[in-house]
Amino acid sequence: MVNFIEAQKPLLSRLMKMAGLRPIELELEPGTTMHVWAPKHHVGNKGGITVSPTEPAAEDIRRKKKKKKKKSLESRPNVVLIHGFAAEGNVTWQFNFGVLVSRYNLYIPDLMFFGKSSTASPDRSPDFQARCVAAALARLGVSRCDVVGFSYGGMVAFKLAEARPELVRSLCVSGSVVAMTEAVNREAMDRLGAGSSAELLMPETLKGLKALLSVSMYRKMWFPDRFYKDYLKVMFTNRKERMELLQGLLTSTIDATIPVFQQKIMLLWGEEDKIFDIELAKKMKEQLGDRCFLHGIRKAGHLLHVERPCAYNRQLQRWLAYVNSAEGADHQAS
């Protein structure tokens, strides 16, 4: 019997390729491979990775035009989209990448144990995920970028910005926290009536998956049970490793500190987010200081980029346009 969720993936991959993106697998170190959707100018005619292309021997007009076009593409601002915990990159950002590809070089990595990314390393921390993203971007020749992170991907984005301020120019984060402290985790689980984050985020039954979608969205949406069954089979793979990732998130409340970020930060939030509510976002904005901004989207929950993609895309485009403008660059430099 056809799995509807699995059957969607070839179509989604085709749409991404039509938009000018290509899947690339990068071996970052022995035993660690990251899968990234990247602009097609990184891929040679035979599908190989082209990080530092050589000059063509023939000086014919066609190759000159191709080289000029390639340089034009490479000069565009770089934007990295980091997914959350329920799905890999292309599934998470399927309603958002299309509005960005004409203006930006998009990079959509699959974090470790999502999609085709895997590692033999025992490290399960968001710091490790951030190091892998940074290593993949370095392999692709990206020296400066704006990073967009959702939920778990937002935590990775914060770690990346903290560790590599010369790489990350700005952050746009949704439904996330700088660090998942024991206090924040306990408050969220008590409010949602869940025993643990693993119970909430790694459901094994239809009831559990329905509960997760219910707290993740503002609107009550109906799907046939067949949809939920197919989703459980496809989206919650590598269960052991992902459970370990959740354990690797937790930070002692006593040891937790708020870093001083050099970047401008946009907190783009669903006003009806039940997992990380808008009050938590307001508190985080105050902690992060004057370089942090908060914009709430009405009638949207945790999955705001899926539930209200037009509103989310509009605000994200405004943010990226600002940080890439002369005014934004001047403020950033100061």
Automatic annotation (TrEMBL):
This is AB hydrolase-1 domain-containing protein. It holds the Pfam family Abhydrolase_1. PANTHER family: OS02G0706900 PROTEIN, SI:DKEY-122A22.2. InterPro entries: AB_hydrolase_1, AB_hydrolase_fold, Meta-cleavage_hydrolase. It comes from Digitaria exilis. Residues 45-72 are annotated as: Disordered. The lineage of its organism: Eukaryota, Viridiplantae, Streptophyta, Embryophyta, Tracheophyta. Residues 77-309 form the AB hydrolase-1 domain.
